[in-house]
Amino acid sequence: MSSQGVKDIDKSKVRQAALFLAVKYLILQRLNKTNTAQSCRAYGSDLGFFLEMGNIYTLHREHIENPHVSSKDTPTKSQNMASTYDIPALSLYLDGRIRECLPAWGRLEPSSRQRKFVVIKGFLSWLREQSLYNGSSYRLLRAPKVNLPIPRILTVDEAIKILKLLDSWPPKNLPNKKIQYAKEAKLLFLLMYGAGLRVSEALSLKWNHIRSQEMRILGKGQKSRVVWTPRILSEYLRSLRETSLGSEVFQHKLTQQSAYRRIQWLAKECQLTRPLHPHALRHSYATHILGSGGDLRTLQDLLGHASLTTTQRYTHLTTDDLGRTLEKHHPLGNAKKK
């Protein structure tokens, strides 16, 4: 039965109750510090579509980020219903929405469908734990298997080309107003390719995180790790620190979009023939370490991956490179082309 089959109740009240519970669920996700605001925004979008609303996180961001501060836009009307939910009606509505949404979800890419299913199932599992949902349609949410793609990475030759150019950086013919921009581009490159940092980790780096040739990084899920810094990065950080006035390594606050623009600009200045994304630098760091004989466990620690499975996807790329090398240079590979 679809959610439109709920005839004997006020559907608006059920939806309001569902909204209140979704907001509370997002508050809990933020309070446990394992999800960033960006993650919760994505959750809010998926839950909003599921509950026939807009992005719940965006609509109620103030209350989700500051749950102890009241807001006129907070769905407080349903708070009095918290102990008197019509659980059968709520369950019927949620099960109906699952069946209504399945065709639209089925047209999505496997990775997008998987993310939505994880979010919806997480929300429904929490409701079940609170004894607020006794439906069964959640079993229809079978997440597809997704092969994680490896984005475009730098070749070793491209990396060497950039590093040689950075030796005399910034370029002498650069306008004065562009010098700071160039320094930030260099720092981003060295942090992500030289130390394997995520963009968010690089942009939030503080001077007290750095000691000699080590950096203590607070990554996803508030997990801390120690990262070794190569000499060129350590020396550059030391030179920047001498003129720094604040606690942040980046004196000017940068967004991820502005970081992307700086890396794109750096790639053009280095005359790379292909576009370059900041996160590709982290992937290049990992792939080049493995290609030079590094082991997976060490790389897992350096990257801050919770699961070795995530790190193992880099082995596919290095194996592919090996295969192409053999095909090109091995006598049997050449013999097949004749």
Walk me through the structure.
With 338 residues, this protein is mainly α. The chain has two domains: 138 residues, no CATH class; 174 residues, hpI Integrase, Chain A. The chain is built from 15 helices and three strands. A three-stranded antiparallel beta sheet has the order 1-2-3. Helix 1 runs antiparallel to helix 2 and helix 8 packs across helix 10. The chain is elongated, with a radius of gyration of 25 Å. The termini are far apart.
Relevant terms:
4% strand, elongated, 58% helix, 338 residues, mainly alpha, hpI Integrase, Chain A
List the helices and strands and how they pair.
Layout: H1 11-31, H2 37-50, H3 56-59, H4 61-65, H5 87-106, H6 110-129, H7 156-166, H8 176-195, H9 199-203, E1 210-211, E2 214-218, E3 224-228, H10 231-241, H11 256-269, H12 278-291, H13 296-303, H14 308-329, H15 331-337
Antiparallel strand pairs: 1-2, 2-3
Average pLDDT over all residues: 79
Number of discrete helical segments: 15
Order of helices and strands: HHHHHHHHHEEEHHHHHH
Q: What percent of the residues sit in helical stretches (DSSP H or I)?
A: 55-70%
Short description:
Helix 2 packs across helix 6. The protein has a 3-stranded antiparallel β-sheet with strand order 1-2-3.
